[in-house]
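Are you able to produce any protein sequence you like plus the matching backbone structure tokens because I've never seen that pairing?
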Amino acid sequence: MKIFAKCRLGVLALAGCLALASIPATRAQEMTSKALIERAEIQDLITRYYGNFGKSKRESFADFYADDAEMILGANHYKGKEGITEAYKRAGANTSVEKAYSFNITISNPLIVVHGERATAQLIFTEYLMQKQGDPLSIRTQGREYSTFVKVKGQWRYKTRQIMNGNESPADWKE
């Protein structure tokens, strides 16, 4: 009888562990074909945006944003396409990146969640710089992006884009 009770308790414990193991740590988005297409479109927008850095002929960064978008870099807030354009002009004038042989930014760990006509994304970016051909490649910086997106005339655009260092997400961040 004691052996049967111990076996039964062991089976119940195993069943409980298996049930808990099947529950994801965070709730994943349902993978419908529409959600996958929307996520791919947003990831393409993000990839084209980051691929735009370091190009001699590039698209306007403001074109990746909705008209009323906001870009947040630390304590600095840039609102609307005009503010975002001005931020990039100032950043380009104050950096050696424009004169570098090679400047590339990679993105990793993108987590994109679509909520109908709105979406969120968080990712890690790493900036690589080579001043002259043959120089060693250096990591310029690494950080995290927390962004929201909206559809504008059927196309995804940034609504907010917040760049942060460290491991903390913005205080008001909601996936």
